[in-house]
Design a protein that fits this description.
heterodimer; A: about 0% strand; B: about 475 residues; mainly alpha; about 0% strand
Chain lengths: ~80, ~475
């Protein structure tokens, strides 16, 4: 499952947020704490995840403590999908 | 807080941390006592009792409103209710013990007051057991808290209120400059709002009265934060404390580093830090920058020192408070500065203001241009963070300064994305770029402090003129 979530989110972040479609992101690469994804783009990311996977990410969860990299975000999505 | 008071807090924290049974209740009793103990004296003497009593009353009421049915039984909650009432009565009884000089700044009012508070606690619990809270009540509680917050933080309202009370009491209609200092209220209110909002979204964990009040008034973080989240705090409160030697070393280091920052560095810098008087006397740009930098360092060491003390104290109680500062003055841009300055407050605003507003604008039928959304959300969030410190022009302008700064930086990074020249890719180039960013950010933040620390925008403007050499 992880295998299918990560590439989709990675592609979105690289092309839509970083505007560098060819950029690859490591699963453990910090996104929020590093400033790569700013607070405005983070909301776009949440809306994209909600639309694509049909899971809800709360406003209070959009911070580096909940998820800070692709792997953590993927597990969050999966844990909600399996419910 | 004096160093003597902090010493007592540390001593008691170590004692409570050692308890195997009854840690939660001992912590509750001491935190409740600390609220009364540290409350500064007020112009109206009895307020020194009423304000802490109101903090407790408000917290108990909000627990009753936000708690889930399974945590409302009298059986689980009576020890905590008794402790809160007991501490309040003990404080009021102090007039008979004659210990005013030792632990209270004023003589507390009559026993009746304690009885009233006791009834309040008892009634609330009785109410809580038999009610089903309607959604509108949460909104009412939210609005009530925010209105109370605004009234208390607005000097205009406080002055008029005090003038009015004085006029009634003494027939003296002359309103005087008055300061109402409700210790810890800014932080308490934000913790309460967090629990209401999370209750509304169904995310608030089920907590007992003792756990809830402990979270809101936890004594290490009561006066100056950090603002923890209740679900995290309660997990640690429930698990037994087991401190290895390494934990003691870390807690002790944090505590003493905090004392050093606050009482040595910050207090020494206070002598040369920019203030209302200095600003009217200094005529040279160089000295003005010097005093301004001294202020920037002073406010950092003061605030982060308090945070270190709080984190150290909490650690021996088995609670790992969240970090509030992460070397903010060494950050290369304003966004990263705000990710590392008073972090728990900015996270709070992100969770309960910035994100909901951004979500609403992003998902609304009107397709707002991205820069407009960023400008509105950043500026509004930062102005509100400013006003959290007090409803004055200075704090509003300080917030706006940072809001606009964040917007400009955001647009610039957006524009510069993918346009990095080749020299920037080298190690030396990246280092120089980083250093320039740190320098620029520190100076931008320092200039912002002019609005924050000087009492009127006129003074801030005159300091600006001197700093940039165009004073008349």
């Amino acid at each position: 499952m992880n295998d299918s979530v990560i590439p989709v989110v990675e592609k979105y972040i690289a092309s839509q947020i970083l505007k560098q479609p060819n950029r690859t992101l490591q699963p453990a690469e910090p996104l929020i704490s590093s400033g790569l994804v700013d607070s405005f783009s983070l909301m776009d990311l949440a809306l994209f995840v909600e639309d694509t996977f049909g899971v809800r990410i709360e406003d209070t969860e959009l911070n580096a403590n909940t998820f800070d990299n692709l792997a953590q975000l993927a597990s969050l999505i999966e844990s909600r999908l399996s419910k | 807080m004096t160093i003597f008071q902090i010493g007592i807090l540390a001593f008691i924290a170590i004692g409570i941390g050692q308890l195997h049974k009854g840690r939660e209740l001992a912590l509750l009793a001491f935190s409740a006592f600390v609220i009364y103990w540290l409350q500064p004296p007020q112009q109206f003497v009895s307020l020194a009792f009423w304000l802490p009593a109101a903090t407790l009353g408000l917290t108990v009421i909000l627990w009753a409103l936000t708690s889930t049915p399974e945590s409302l039984s009298w059986k689980q909650n009576w020890p905590a209710a008794m402790i809160l009432a007991g501490v309040t009565i003990l404080v009021a009884l102090n007039r008979y013990f004659g210990l005013e000089q030792v632990y209270m700044t004023t003589t507390p009012p009559l026993l009746q007051v304690a009885v009233v508070v006791f009834i309040l606690v008892g009634l609330t619990i009785a109410l809580a057991r038999s009610r089903a809270v309607r959604p509108a009540v949460y909104w009412l509680a939210l609005v009530g808290l925010i209105v109370l917050f605004i009234l208390l933080k607005t000097p205009y309202f406080v002055n008029h209120l005090f003038g009015f009370v004085k006029a009634v009491q003494a027939g003296d209609a002359e309103p005087k400059q008055a300061i109402l200092s409700w210790l810890g209220f800014s932080y308490v209110a934000f913790r309460l709002i967090h629990t209401i909002r999370d209750r509304q979204s169904g995310r608030l964990p089920s907590v007992t009265l003792g756990e809830y009040v402990n979270y809101v008034i936890f004594f290490p973080a009561f006066t100056a934060g950090p603002i923890d989240r209740i679900e995290r705090f309660v997990l640690e409160l429930r698990s037994p404390v087991s401190l290895a030697r390494q934990d003691w070393v870390e807690a002790g280091t944090r505590f003493f580093v905090g004392l050093f920052k606050k009482f040595v560095l910050a207090d020494a810098l206070a002598v040369i830090a920019l203030n209302d008087i200095l600003v009217t006397q200094v005529k040279s740009a160089g000295w003005m920058w010097f005093f301004l930098y001294a202020y920037s360092l002073r406010i950092y060491f003061d605030f982060s020192g308090y945070t270190d003390i709080a984190i150290g104290l909490a650690r021996v109680l088995g609670i790992r408070l969240p970090e509030n500062f992460a070397a903010p003055y060494l950050k290369p841009n304003l966004t990263q500065f705000w990710n590392s300055w008073h972090m728990t407050l900015t996270q709070w605003f992100r969770a309960y203001f910035f994100n909901p507003l951004t979500r609403a604008m992003r998902s609304s039928k009107i397709s707002w241009p991205v820069p407009v959304i960023i400008l509105i959300t950043q500026a509004a969030a930062m102005v509100l963070i400013g006003l959290w410190h007090g409803v004055t022009w200075g704090f509003a302008l300080w917030g706006l300064w940072h809001g606009l700064g964040l917007f400009v930086q955001n647009r610039w990074s957006e524009w510069a994305r993918g346009k990095q020249p080749s020299w920037l890719q080298t190690r030396a180039g990246a280092m120089i770029f980083n250093a320039a960013g740190v320098f620029l950010t520190f100076n931008f933040v320092s200039l912002g402090w002019l609005f924050f620390t000087l009492s009127t925008p006129d003074l801030s403007w005159s300091a600006f003129q001197v700093l940039f050499g165009f004073a008349k």
